[in-house]
Amino acid sequence: MSQTSHKSSLAFTLIELLVIIAIIAILAAMLLPALAKSKDTAIRTQCLNNTHQAYLGLHMYADDNRDRIPQVGMGNWAWDLPWDVGTIIENYGGKWKAFYCPGTKPRFADAENYELWTYVPGQFRVLGYAMTFKGTPSLIPANANEFISRTDPVLVGFNKYYKPSLAERVLMADATISVPGGNTNKTQVTSFTDVAGGYRIHHTTPHMAKSVPRGGNEVMLDGHSQWVKWELMSGRTTGGAPEFWW
After folding, report:
1. Using an 8 Å Cβ cutoff, are 215 and 233 in contact?
2. Of 36, 178, 182, 225, which residue is most buried, by most CB within 10 angstroms?
């Protein structure tokens, strides 16, 4: 056998090459959804850990303030935190990164989040999670909390009150946000991922499934964190600011 014919016998034919490419494409199509799901699970887990770490910082704050969590009275949105509160939490050893959901990357990396953490020096910081402090801007009052270890009765009907447990009251929630206009009707929301504010980059909801939120993590007053599906969320703010859901 000549050297030329030996080399030809080792080469792929066009048909064989196309078959190999097709097999690789099929394998990639099978693996990509699994990889995407694994990445989403990792982000949700990191987010859940963040909410727990943030809770610890807020609990230490309450321990030094007769069980009271911060009160706001400044800012514009449901994620605006008084400047001094953030400083106190850092002095306790709390990490500012714990107040930002990893699900907003790559639009909001650490550099952008730190700009928000130091947004208006001496006045307030902009977080990545929504808070339920008393006086939180645009928050529906029934969702506000004043203490870390007790709850106040909530009006649920005409002259009818219900006292929820600590496990039922949200302290901090994933910032599932939307442009104004759909607070009472989810089908009227026009965007969850292009929400303009005072920052140079438009804000976005984490944990998206194409154009609709998957859900979000919440940490409750008793300290446990949980995942809540979008279908179970309700609008928790009112007014002209972007709407927050949990």
Report:
1. yes
2. 178
% of the chain residues with pLDDT over 90: 66
Domain that holds residue 181: 15-245
Stretch 91-105: mean pLDDT: 94
CA distance 133 to 60: 15
Strand ranges inside the chain, DSSP E: 80-82, 124-126, 129-131, 154-157, 160-162, 170-174, 176-178, 208-209, 212-213, 215-220, 225-229, 243-245
Residue 5 maps to a domain: no
Question: Given this model, what pLDDT does residue 182 score?
Answer: 67
The two tokens of residue 240 are 């002209």
CB atoms near residue 233 (< 10 Å): 19
The two three-digit tokens of residue 124, written as one number: 């307030």
The SS3 of residue 220 is: strand
Counted domains in the chain = 1
Q: Are 193 and 208 in contact (CB under 8 A)?
A: yes
Residue 133 lies in a domain: yes
pLDDT of 123 higher than 90: yes
- Please report, for residues 78, 106, 132, 140, 199, the alpha-carbon distance to residue 136 in angstroms, rounded to integers and kept in the order given: 6, 28, 6, 9, 19
